[in-house]
Amino acid sequence: MNKMTVRNIDLKGKRVLVRVDFNVPLDGETITDDTRIRAAVPTLKYILDQNPKAVILMSHLGRPKGGPEPKYSLKPVAPALAKLLGKEVHFAEDCVGAVADEALAKLPEGGVLLLENTRFYKGEEKNDLDLAQQLAKHGDVYVNDAFGSAHRAHSSTEGVARYLPAVSGLLMEKEIDYLATTLENPKRPFVAILGGAKVSDKIEVIEALLGKVDKLLIGGGMANTFFKAQGHAMGNSLVEGEAVDTAKTLLAKGEGKLVLPIDGVIGDAFKDDANQKTIPITDGVPEGWSMYDIGPKTIALFGNILKDAKTVVWNGPMGVFELPSFAKGTNAIAQILADTTDHGAVTIIGGGDSAAAVEGSGLASRITHISTGGGASLEMLEGKALPGVVALKDKQ
């Protein structure tokens, strides 16, 4: 990574404006998963140790439509962060304007201020430079630690970097290190695992990875479209009709590298207590049934490939893991990756549902790196430049 980080800049006595990713799931005012808040703590503690004048935090939360919506307020995050930092976190009811200015003026020396949701302003997602300039007025230095939003050119990610010295936080540095640097020259065998619902969402990442990996394992709903391309009956399974020809092209291009499931678990309804059975893929899925998970022979096949891997990247579950009856494949892959890590492999989970599955299985501590950004990690795997990263200062 050739970008300046928070370690390369003097923060003493400065107002440090930090873009964090506090886009956390809420049940009313209760945070149901604080992973993203915890991920920001090392950077924030590092900054506070440098004796700054103030630390000002900005983030988005959810998708408010056209203005402030109380259910998307960042207010519940302040006490949760305060607990993790062991320090009071003040809250401003707005991210710019008189309310934010007043909150900043009242902040004690070395205090932490969390600004209200940046997406309460329409200009945020349009990268409105007037909004970016108003946000930039809060700080002397800009630190971007929001990898989950780095693939978007928004006012608080890319725009602000035009008006302040801009460097990466420790989390951003770590994400880039694993998702770019490690994968540029991976230890081999290098294996990628892709799952999730749709092939169309991952065409570019499949094409990019086919040129780099030794094996590419496909699971989840997206495998159904490949099966259809091979001529197998898929019953009521999720199949992207418009992507079947693309799947045929990818199968031809990936011959010898692309590995599909050989058996699957099917159900007669999308519910946990549905009737289910395991079938070979060659038998096809009968009418009224759908493919919901990879089967035991596929788990063994994938496990055999993964046990010798030295670098593994995984994005997307192997089935509808939100239903416990159809989570066996996803949980088995998580366990295999934990074991592979124990044997010295570098394992990287590319955010999103696969990250949630690993966290839920209690195996997170046995994985090398779990990305905080689903969309951003996919774009990085595709080899795309992320606007939030490009905007940071280069090392001299």
What attributes does this structure have?
396 residues, alpha/beta, Rossmann fold, 2 domains, six-stranded parallel β-sheet, elongated
Describe the overall structure.
34% of the residues lie in helices and 16% in strands. The model has no long low-confidence stretch (mean pLDDT 94). Helix 10 runs parallel beside helix 11. The chain has helices at 35-49, 77-85, 97-106, 129-136, 155-159, 170-184, 203-210, 222-229, 244-253, 296-306, 328-342, 352-360, 374-381, 387-390; strands at residues 15-19, 26-27, 30-31, 54-58, 89-91, 111-114, 141-144, 166-168, 190-194, 215-218, 258-259, 263-267, 276-280, 290-294, 311-315, 346-349, 369-370. The protein folds into two domains: 6-171, Rossmann fold; 186-381, Phosphoglycerate kinase, N-terminal domain (Rossmann fold), CATH 3.40.50.1260. The strands form four sheets. It has a six-stranded parallel sheet. Strands 11-10-9-15-16-17 form a six-stranded parallel sheet, with helices on both faces. The protein is an alpha/beta fold and 396 residues long.
Secondary structure elements and their pairing?
Elements: E1 15-19, E2 26-27, E3 30-31, H1 35-49, E4 54-58, H2 77-85, E5 89-91, H3 97-106, E6 111-114, H4 129-136, E7 141-144, H5 155-159, E8 166-168, H6 170-184, E9 190-194, H7 203-210, E10 215-218, H8 222-229, H9 244-253, E11 258-259, E12 263-267, E13 276-280, E14 290-294, H10 296-306, E15 311-315, H11 328-342, E16 346-349, H12 352-360, E17 369-370, H13 374-381, H14 387-390
Parallel strand pairs: 1-4, 1-7, 4-6, 5-6, 7-8, 9-10, 9-15, 10-11, 15-16, 16-17
Antiparallel strand pairs: 2-3, 12-13, 12-14
